[in-house]
Amino acid sequence: MRLENIEKYIDFCKKQTNSVVNYTLSLKKHIKKIVIKDEERGLLFKNSLFNKLLKPGVYYFPPFVDIDVKIANINAPFYVTGYDVSIFIKNEQLAKELEVFEVKDYELGLLYEDGLFRAAYKAGKHPFFKGLKKREMRIIDKRIPEIDEKLFDLSLFMNPALYGNYYAFDVSKHEVGLLYFNNRFQKTLTEGRYYFWSGVYIPQIVKVDLRQQQIEINGQELMTLDKITIRLNFVSHYKIVNPEKLTHTINNYTQQIYILLQLILREYIGSLSLDDILKKKQEIGDYVLEKIKEKQSDFGIEFNFCGVKDIILPGEVKDILNTVLIAEKKAQANMIMRREEIASTRSLLNTAKLLDENETLYKLKEMEFIEKISDKIDSVSLSNGGSVLEQIQSLFLPKKK
């Protein structure tokens, strides 16, 4: 080979070598490097299909190949966006690394990690990587909606992770609650706080107040036996003793009690004259109470008081009664004055008899009058003879015969 040809060959080789090096360097830049940490696992996908599980380590993948690695934390629930978990559960290699909890349609799963509640899961398959934490899925049957306080720590229901999975109702001390599931009556609840699982049944609680309650009838127009129309304000006190009967058999019980009281009042007031009504105000309440107690078992209610608050008379009747009252009071006043006058006259007569029969008492009476007169006189002028006492007596007292 000629020298010029050798030089050309050497130049050719150099060019080829540089191309290979440059190609190698360029290729290295496109190699994918994946680092998987101890608390992670890698899910390798080729052409968008799951291929295998990658354990902790460093992995290199050639360029220009449709490869994707999704990193999953073993301490978190297993979930891959855009893929159904069933695809991964069926993989033999991955199945060995996973623990799967299945929750049915009518169930609720409560996940505990190392004995602590973490989350609530609804129907479906819920896989987790087997790792450092001990997991337990407690399955709740929502077909039994009432939550027994003996089986659950009530602080569990303060955890936000459980919100939306239960109902809570409060029944106060003065109430009872009628419990219904899907509008079917179940039982009566006393004072306390109650929890129910949501999902299968919809719990409802109708609260009934057991405290004493009151019904008022105001301005009720009634006609008396003597055809006088009066207005009455009436009140009745009662307590509910059978909430179930009252709620299930009576519609709008307050309105029915109101009408019943009206009818009893009309019956009784219509049998009395106005004078009798004014005299027997207390007896009206007693009569109505006795009558309405005959019906209380039909309502599940106990009545304990009925009474008239006010009796309102028409203006004309009121004027007439006022006139009669004034006349009666005047007559009573005149009788009292006459009695007092008679008593005063008798007292004077008795006093006069005593003075006439007893000289000493007469003299004492004289001295008493003189003393009273002396208190009111500034000076006394005397004339003629005689003692002072005799002259004073002659001025004010007639001589005794």
Highlighted features:
Tetrahydropterin Synthase, Chain A; three-stranded antiparallel β-sheet; single chain; 38% helix; elongated; alpha+beta; 18 strands; 11 helices; 401 residues
Describe the structure.
By secondary structure, the protein is of the alpha+beta class. Among the domains are: about 1-30; about 215-315, Band 7 domain (Tetrahydropterin Synthase, Chain A), CATH 3.30.479; about 315-355; about 365-400, no CATH class. Helices cover about 40% and strands about 30% of the residues. It is built from 11 helices and 18 strands. It has helices at about 5-30, 85-90, 90-95, 245-250, 255-270, 275-280, 280-295, 295-300, 315-355, 360-375, 390-395; strands spanning about 30-35, 40-45, 50-55, 55-60, 65-75, 100-105, 105-115, 115-120, 125-130, 135-140, 165-170, 175-180, 185-190, 190-195, 205-210, 215-225, 230-240, 300-310. A 3-stranded antiparallel β-sheet has the order 3-2-5, with no helix packed on it. Helix 5 packs across helix 7 (about 280-295) and helix 9 (about 315-355) packs across helix 10. The longest helix has about 45 residues, at about 315-355. The chain is elongated. It starts with a helix and ends in a 5-residue tail after the last helix. The model has no long low-confidence stretch (mean pLDDT about 80).
